[in-house]
Write a structure and sequence with these properties.
The protein has helices at 3-22, 81-88, 97-105, 108-116, 137-142, 159-165, 177-180, 203-213, 230-234, 253-263, 280-292, 307-319, 321-335; strands at residues 45-52, 61-67, 73-75, 127-131, 150-155, 172-174, 188-194, 214-225, 249-250, 265-271, 347-354. The protein is an alpha/beta fold. The chain folds into 2 domains: 1-277 and 345-355, Rossmann fold; 281-333, no CATH class. The strands form 2 sheets. It has a 7-stranded mixed sheet, with helices on both faces. The chain has a 4-stranded antiparallel sheet with strand order 1-2-3-9, with no helix packed on it. The longest helix is centred in the N-terminal third of the chain and has 20 residues, at 3-22. The termini are far apart.
Length: 355
């Protein structure tokens, strides 16, 4: 069977389960709307953004609210546990595993830069836990920077089990970090959370778990999207780091610094330009083209698209190639050198030492 036919058979096999899951609509995937900020408890909230799932195109509409007192941005109403399962399904694993593994596996240079951020603070950590490790590609690449470090990984998807089987991590822990942290108390010289906190339903609980797992004098390394990036307003719903409905919380750097200090950490480094991933315009153009084109086949669609719709999709995407190429050039050669000066950095990185 050809790869295309095998993929079609796989999608067709998943379609009945998705059809049954969507029969009652998508409102049941959302919790009641909050009236106060989950970060500072202020009742002064304003709507920041309404959008849809622009990557998988699963049905549903999602709202981000902003706190006018502390600046925290959060999904409101937030996905329930059932909603998280539905929208994560077939993204990082299952149907999407091969695609995401290829995407993450091709970013070794970025992973090495993340590991290098620890060198001024601990040039030879013995033990490192990567929380939200996915398929463990960061750990595999970081060994080239820190060959004497033992890397473990933790995630709630089966990707961490794949990472252990492939030897990318020495130990793979599957489950929720706050639940597993008591068994990992003071075990690690470094705990990293790369683009993990924004996915969590309760970031404060995750930070407390990190404080438990890091040994005294050890370090916590965090990288998250920067909601204060100018791209966030310039690109609106087409800014990739919004990533709805998966990203639940967006913390301004000052908020996260204060929370870490309150938990017993000292922030020893803050990086913005170094954490920037120059893909904002490319991603925005791709999301817009993908939204305009007819859908490619997916098991949450009622039926597979016919030959005409597939041809139209191909035509729309091919027509957009020159714009995509232009976006790449601007991202890498025009905007990237100015990202720090113009506050375009789409992420920031904090290094914090446990006191």
């Amino acid at each position: 069977m050809s790869d295309a036919r095998e993929k079609k058979a796989h999608i067709d096999g998943l379609r009945p389960a998705y059809r049954a899951g969507l029969a009652a609509g998508t409102d049941r995937f959302l919790a009641p709307r909050r009236t106060t900020c989950p970060w500072c408890s202020s009742a002064r909230l304003t709507r920041r953004l309404r959008t849809t799932d622009l990557l998988q195109h699963k049905p549903g509409r999602f709202t981000l609210d902003a706190c006018t007192d502390c600046g925290h941005i959060f999904q409101n109403p937030q996905l329930t546990a059932e909603g998280l399962e539905f929208y994560y399904r077939d993204f990082y694993d299952g149907l999407g595993e091969q695609r995401m593994s290829g995407t993450f596996g091709a970013r070794a240079a970025m992973y090495r830069r993340r590991a290098e951020a620890m060198l001024p603070h601990d040039p030879a950590p013995k033990t490192w836990l990567d929380v939200g490790t996915g398929h463990g590609h960061f750990c595999a690449a970081a060994r080239g920077v820190l060959p004497g470090t033992a890397f473990d990984g933790l995630d709630f998807t089966d990707g961490v089990e794949l990472a252990a089987r492939e030897g990318r991590v020495e130990h793979g822990y599957r489950g929720a970090f706050p639940d597993l942290a008591p068994g990992l108390a003071a075990r690690y010289d470094v705990v990293s959370m790369f683009h993990y906190l924004e996915h969590s339903t309760d970031p404060d609980r995750e930070l407390r778990a990190a404080h438990e797992a890091v040994r005294p004098g050890g370090h916590l390394l965090i990288e998250v999207p920067d909601p204060e990036s100018r791209y966030a307003r310039l690109l609106g719903r087409w800014w990739l780091p919004w990533l709805q409905p998966q990203h639940l919380h967006f913390m301004p750097a000052a908020n996260l610094r204060r929370r870490l200090t309150g938990l017993g950490f000292t922030v020893v480094a803050e990086q913005h330009t170094e954490a920037h991933d120059p893909v904002d315009l490319l991603a925005a153009v791709w999301l817009a083209l993908d939204r305009a084109a007819p859908r490619e086949d997916a098991p949450w669609l009622p039926e597979a698209p016919g030959a005409l719709r597939r041809a139209l999709r191909t035509g729309v995407l091919l027509a957009g190639v020159p714009v995509l190429l232009a976006a790449v050039l601007v991202d890498r050669f025009a905007a990237r050198p100015l990202a720090g000066r113009l506050r375009l950095s789409n992420a920031y990185r904090l290094v914090a030492r446990r006191d």
